[in-house]
C-alpha cells in the first residue's frame, strides 16, 4: 500500500496545525502500532527524539504534533515497513533499498553545510584577491588553519569509506561514530579501542582516525572545539594575557598546579608499544571557553539559517502584539540610539543567562558548575529558544560557586563581546553570497535573583 507522505514536509507549527498533518500522524501511528499494544515503546521519529528514544503511542503522538516528524524518514523501516517493501516487485525492491540507505544516514545536512562552508571560503578568497587584501577571513585571532581544515572536511565528505562502499562516505561514518559515542556515553578509551579494531578489520588508510584524539579533530574543524584556561583556585585571576606564564597567583600566592601526576604511557598514542612513565602538571582549576565569534560565523555559513537571521526585521509583523523580543521597548530603544547597528539586520542581538547546578542531578553534592549560555534573538521565536541554537560560551568549574568573582571568569567572553560591538568581524553570508562586517550586542541577562546579584557584582 502506497501511503501519501506529503504531510511529512511540514514547515513550522503552522503546517502542523493543519488537518492534513494531523491525519497523517494518525495514519502513521495506526500503522506503527497495528500489531502491538499502545503502551509498547517504539522509536519516535520526531525532530527531538530522531529514532534514538522510544515512546508509547500517546507520547509519540504528542511529540509528532509539537516537534514535528523528521521529513527525511520516508521509509518507516523502524516501524515494520521494510518487510512490506520486499514483498513488492523487483523494481519496487530496488527503490526501497535506495530509500533505506537514505533514511539510515542521519547526517543528510552535513554535505550541504560543508558545501556552503567551502563556497563561503572560495567566495571570500576571491573577494580578498580582487581587493588585493591579505586580511585573514574568519581568523578571529589568527587561526590560519581554518581553510586547511575545511578542505580536509571537503575531501573526507567526498571520499569513499573503502573502495566500492555505497552506504557511507568517510566523513559521514566518522561523524556517525562520534554521534554514537556521545549518545551512548562511551569512554575515550573504549572509543579508541573500537577505532583500532576497525582499522585492523577493514585495513583503512592513514586518513581514517586511529584514536579518539584524531577523531575529535573533526569536531574542531567544524568549530565545535573549546579552549582550556587555567584559573586561580581562589578565583583571583585567569592565567591568560599578562598572567599566562605565572606559576603562582600574584594576588593570593596560591600555586597554579596540583602536585605532579605520574602516569603510564599515552593510551591514545599512535605507538602501541609506548610504556614510558610521564610527569604531568595538572592545573588546580580549569575554565572551559567555547569561543563565541566562530560559532556566530558558522550560523551564517548555512544559507538556510542565514535567511532566518534576518527574520526579526524582514518577516516580523509589528501589529502591537509581543511575540518576539524585537517587539520589546528595549530592542526598539537600541535601534533608535544606534541606527548604524540597526541598519544591518544580520547584526546579532544576544541574551545571556547563567546559574549554578549540581552535576549528575545529585542535590546532596557540594560540587557546583556554572554554565554561561547565550541566545541569538535574530532567529524567529520558534527557533531562537531551541537548544540547537543556544550557545554555550563558558563552563565555570566547581567545586564552589564563583560568587561575586564571576567577573573573573567572564573575561574571555567580555573580550569577544567588546570586539563584536566596537569593530565587528568579517563574516561570509551564504544566502546573499557576500562578506559583511558582523557586529553583536548583549541586550540583557536573565537570571534568578541570587545569580543576578553575582553578575551585578
TrEMBL record:
Residues 83-103 have a biased composition (Acidic residues). Residues 81-103 are annotated as: Disordered. It comes from the Eukaryota. Signal peptide: none annotated. Residues 5-81 form the Transposase-associated domain. PANTHER family: OS08G0208400 PROTEIN, TRANSPOSON, EN_SPM-LIKE, TRANSPOSASE-ASSOCIATED DOMAIN PROTEIN-RELATED. This is Transposase-associated domain-containing protein. The lineage of its organism: Eukaryota, Viridiplantae, Streptophyta, Embryophyta, Tracheophyta.
Amino acid at each position: 500500500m502506497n501511503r501519501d507522505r506529503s504531510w511529512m514536509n511540514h514547515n513550522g507549527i503552522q503546517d502542523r496545525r493543519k488537518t492534513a498533518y494531523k491525519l497523517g500522524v494518525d495514519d502513521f501511528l495506526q500503522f506503527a502500532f497495528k500489531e502491538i499494544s499502545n503502551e509498547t515503546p517504539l522509536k519516535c521519529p520526531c525532530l527531538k527524539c530522531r529514532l534514538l528514544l522510544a515512546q508509547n503511542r500517546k507520547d509519540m503522538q504528542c511529540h509528532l504534533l509539537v516537534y514535528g516528524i523528521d521529513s527525511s524518514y520516508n521509509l518507516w523501516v523502524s516501524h515494520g515497513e521494510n518487510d512490506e517493501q520486499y514483498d513488492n516487485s523487483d523494481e519496487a525492491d530496488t527503490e526501497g533499498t535506495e530509500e533505506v540507505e537514505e533514511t539510515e544516514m542521519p547526517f543528510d545536512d552535513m554535505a550541504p553545510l560543508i558545501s556552503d562552508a567551502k563556497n563561503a571560503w572560495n567566495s571570500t578568497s576571491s573577494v580578498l584577491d580582487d581587493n588585493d587584501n591579505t586580511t585573514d577571513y574568519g581568523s578571529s585571532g589568527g587561526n590560519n588553519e581554518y581553510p586547511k581544515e575545511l578542505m580536509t572536511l571537503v575531501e573526507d565528505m567526498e571520499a569513499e569509506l573503502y573502495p566500492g562502499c555505497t552506504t557511507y562516505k568517510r566523513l559521514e561514518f566518522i561523524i556517525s561514530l562520534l554521534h554514537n559515542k556521545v549518545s551512548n556515553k562511551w569512554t575515550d578509551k573504549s572509543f579508541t579501542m573500537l577505532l583500532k579494531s576497525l582499522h585492523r578489520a577493514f585495513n583503512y588508510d592513514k586518513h581514517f582516525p586511529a584514536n579518539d584524539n584524531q577523531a575529535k579533530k573533526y569536531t574542531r574543524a567544524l568549530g565545535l572545539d573549546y579552549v582550556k584556561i587555567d584559573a586561580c583556585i581562589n578565583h583571583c585571576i585567569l592565567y591568560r594575557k599578562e598572567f599566562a606564564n605565572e606559576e603562582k597567583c600574584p594576588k593570593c600566592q596560591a600555586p597554579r598546579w596540583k602536585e605532579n601526576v605520574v602516569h603510564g604511557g599515552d593510551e591514545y598514542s599512535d605507538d602501541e608499544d609506548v610504556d614510558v612513565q610521564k610527569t604531568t602538571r595538572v592545573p588546580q582549576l580549569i575554565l572551559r571557553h567555547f569561543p563565541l565569534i566562530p560559532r556566530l560565523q558558522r550560523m551564517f555559513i548555512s544559507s538556510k539559517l542565514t535567511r532566518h537571521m534576518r527574520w526579526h526585521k524582514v518577516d516580523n509583523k509589528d501589529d502591537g502584539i509581543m511575540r518576539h523580543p524585537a517587539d520589546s521597548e528595549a530592542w526598539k530603544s537600541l535601534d533608535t540610539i544606534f541606527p548604524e547597528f540597526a541598519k544591518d539586520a544580520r547584526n546579532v542581538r544576544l541574551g545571556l543567562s547563567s546559574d549554578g547546578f549540581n552535576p549528575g542531578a545529585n542535590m546532596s553534592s557540594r560540587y557546583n558548575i556554572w554554565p554561561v549560555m547565550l541566545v541569538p534573538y535574530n532567529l524567529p521565536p520558534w527557533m531562537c529558544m531551541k537548544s540547537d541554537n543556544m550557545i554555550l560560551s563558558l563552563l565555570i568549574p566547581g567545586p564552589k560557586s564563583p560568587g561575586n568573582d564571576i567577573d573573573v571568569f567572564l573575561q574571555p567572553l567580555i573580550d569577544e563581546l567588546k570586539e563584536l560591538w566596537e569593530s565587528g568581524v568579517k563574516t561570509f553570508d551564504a544566502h546573499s553570497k557576500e562578506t559583511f562586517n558582523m557586529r553583536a550586542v548583549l541586550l540583557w541577562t536573565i537570571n534568578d535573583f541570587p545569580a543576578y546579584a553575582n553578575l551585578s557584582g
